[in-house]
Amino acid sequence: MAIKPGWQGRFYEDFEIDDVYQHPLGRTVTEADNTWFSLLTMNTNQAHFNHEVGAASEFGRQLVVSTLTIAIAVGQSVIDTTQNAFANLGLDEVRLSAPVYAGDTLWSESLVLEKRDSKSRPQAGIVAVKTRALNQHGHEVLSFVRTFYVHKRGSDRARSLFPTAMEPLARRGTAEAS
Length: 178
What we know:
- The protein has helices spanning 31-40, 51-56, 66-78, and strands spanning 20-22, 27-28, 85-95, 105-117, 124-134, 140-151.
- By secondary structure, it is of the alpha+beta class.
- It has a single domain, classed as Thiol Ester Dehydrase, Chain A, CATH 3.10.129.
- Strands 1, 2, 3, 4, 5 and 6 form a 6-stranded antiparallel beta sheet that branches.
């Protein structure tokens, strides 16, 4: 039986300037997500968790807290950008260009802006990407530039830590694959 590794993410060498990664997982934001995130982060602006305050605002309803929108977009990008990163170095040029509401579905994509070898860490490089989030209608709701350290392929710290199984994986009811 052949073991096929799952997606291991990009290493420094895999990034090419001007490549765009459309991150595969969309995320619908719920009212519970917004309330819990607001409470967890101690955001006391009632526009995020009080229906009456939201309804009386210029938006006519509760807004999703902007830092939740940022967190979702960063999270969506990890699979394509920072699966092999070990440190974020900066989050710059953050633009919140349209409101997000409970029920909106967010999608994100990232453009590789620059990359360079690290002077202090020879087994790593520094990459900058511009990420933006779109709602279900294709309207941009957020953009930012994120800079991060990422391992080079073959780096000691980039090796898989997947444990060796005590018993091989087998088909149901058989000791080995047929």
